[in-house]
Amino acid sequence: TQLLEQSPQFLSIQEGENLTVYCNSSSVFSSLQWYRQEPGEGPVLLVTVVTGGEVKKLKRLTFQFGDARKDSSLHITAAQPGDTGLYLCAGHTGTASKLTFGTGTRLQVTL
Amino acid sequence: NAGVMQNPRHLVRRRGQEARLRCSPMKGHSHVYWYRQLPEEGLKFMVYLQKENIIDESGMPKERFSAEFPKEGPSILRIQQVVRGDSAAYFCASSLEWGVPMNTEAFFGQGTRLTVV
């Protein structure tokens, strides 16, 4: 059973466009993290959200945690080729629980 | 402040051999996760360990795979009698503790790419 579904699965856009990636679940998460992974490398942590309704900004990236803590979104403004990569959401459903990953969104930004 | 260290980065094994993958967590981290990633796919949970304890091994194949995280030394993921289907990237992550959400942030190593020939 896949707890975290991400959409879209693939996204190819041009430099300067905006995009939103979604991470949805039927489970409540105590915390949720977003990672970016580049080919041949391990996932790199971008942000952790904890509180329902929380919004965090990291330069051109805006992360939101749903009020019910069952979903999250990542919005990128004015995408750049350096944003290309695999974006993964991951969350814990409670204490002492494994970190479960979403299905991933593969983003390609072209010039 | 070294991050999560995995070695080797690349490992080639013939079918039937054993593969040992090592993971040294970040300093002060006592929780370790192992994940497997096939090409063009997401990360699949394998096992979650704390020092000297296996907390959750629900993602581990029932045979040939084992993991440990001893009191001293790195965590080891061991695959016995490897088969071609074991070829994948294996990632280790570590976190600080439980109970405080921000302290459950997991940091990943660069992975070990296992190729079975």
Q: Could you characterize what this model shows?
A:
The complex is a heterodimer of chains A (111) and B (117). Chain A is mostly beta strands. Chain A is built from no helices and eleven strands. Chain A has strands at 5-7, 10-14, 19-24, 31-37, 44-49, 55-58, 61-65, 71-76, 85-92, 100-101, 105-110. In chain A, strands 2, 4, 5, 9, 10 and 11 form a six-stranded mixed beta sheet that branches. A five-stranded antiparallel beta sheet of chain A has the order 1-3-8-7-6, with no helix packed on it. In chain A, strand 9 and strand 10 (100-101) form a beta hairpin. The radius of gyration of chain A is 13 Å and the shape is globular. Chain A starts with a strand and ends with a strand. Chain B is mostly beta strands. Chain B is built from no helices and eleven strands. In chain B, the strands form two sheets. In chain B, strands 2, 4, 5, 6, 9, 10 and 11 form a seven-stranded mixed beta sheet that branches. In chain B, strands 1-3-8-7 form a four-stranded antiparallel beta sheet, with no helix packed on it. In chain B, strand 4 (31-37) and strand 5 (43-50) form a beta hairpin. At the A-B interface, strand 4, strand 5, strand 9 and strand 10 of A face strand 5, strand 9 and strand 10 of B.
